[in-house]
Write a structure and sequence with these properties.
By secondary structure, this protein is mostly helical. Helix content is 73%, strand content 0%.
């Protein structure tokens, strides 16, 4: 679940990078515009992944590697 959330957050970050630098929304261009249902689904999933990854800020990764 962590990896999936991170992948979605990275997709969102790259999309915002393109919007910021070039005014180009890749998600909207792929899925038919910013108000298309598929674009809204992707935006929602990226947003939920961002909320989920907040929990990773409080995860002690060193503990996971000590087995």
């Amino acid at each position: 679940m962590n990896r999936l959330a991170l992948v979605l957050v990275i997709i969102g970050a790259l999309n915002w990078l393109l919007v910021g630098l070039f005014k180009f929304d890749l998600v909207a261009s792929i899925f038919g515009g910013p108000t298309a249902i598929l674009s809204r689904v992707v935006y929602t999933l990226v947003g939920l992944a961002g909320i989920y990854t907040i929990s990773l800020l409080f995860t002690d990764f060193r503990r996971d590697r000590e087995v």
